[in-house]
Amino acid sequence: MDNIPVSAGGYNGRIEYAGRAGYLAYGDRIPQASEQSERIMHVTQWLQRWITTRRRTRRPRYLCMVSVERLLLLLGALLLLGLWQASHAEHTASLRWMRGYRSADGVGCCSEHDCVPWPVALLQISGEEATVLLGDTVLQLPTKSVHATQDGQTYWCCQTNTAGRCPDVPTRATTRCVFYTVGM
């Protein structure tokens, strides 16, 4: 039987063992089935090493987290989203009755972020002007910007600043609308 090279790397199917009885000596031919299984095992091991090193080098760190950590992160994000949705829906539903009201400029009185509960009292109405007490501040506002509330709560609808918040002290320039309770 001729020696058939198994690979281009110079392996010719021969194997060397220490000279014990029962083992093949240097230069003896290995049976054909054993050569094929050894070659398959060598290729399999090489593929496993290649795949393992590719996975290690290409996988981002956040994908290596334990699946429990990923699950907790996902649940936390969903919980925050759910809480925000609930508070947003509750606020929008409670102020839905304000949709039809307009300021003296013809603009809608409020949106979800610029209409806040505020102590409001109507002091006097004379022609086109109304005198209103907003907290500790007395203001002259156009009567088209002063409305009676429908839910028993008083509100100040403001012009928000660049941060999206109402100013600390109401002024005529920062007041879009006010809602007062009847009898106050």
Quick structural summary:
Helix content is 30%, strand content 19%. The chain is α+β, with helices and mostly antiparallel strands and 184 residues long. The strands form two sheets. Strands 1-6-7-5 form a four-stranded mixed sheet, with no helix packed on it. The protein has a three-stranded antiparallel sheet with strand order 2-3-4, with no helix packed on it.
Q: Care to describe what's here?
A:
With 184 residues, the protein is of the alpha+beta class. It is built from 2 helices and 7 strands, in the order ααβββββββ. Residues 1-13, 15-21 and 86-91 have low confidence and may be disordered. It has helices at residues 32-58, 67-94, and strands at 115-117, 120-126, 129-134, 137-142, 146-148, 155-158, 175-180. It has a 4-stranded mixed beta sheet with strand order 1-6-7-5, with no helix packed on it. The protein has 3 domains: 1-59, no CATH class; 63-94; 101-180, no CATH class. The chain is rod-shaped and about 110 Å long.
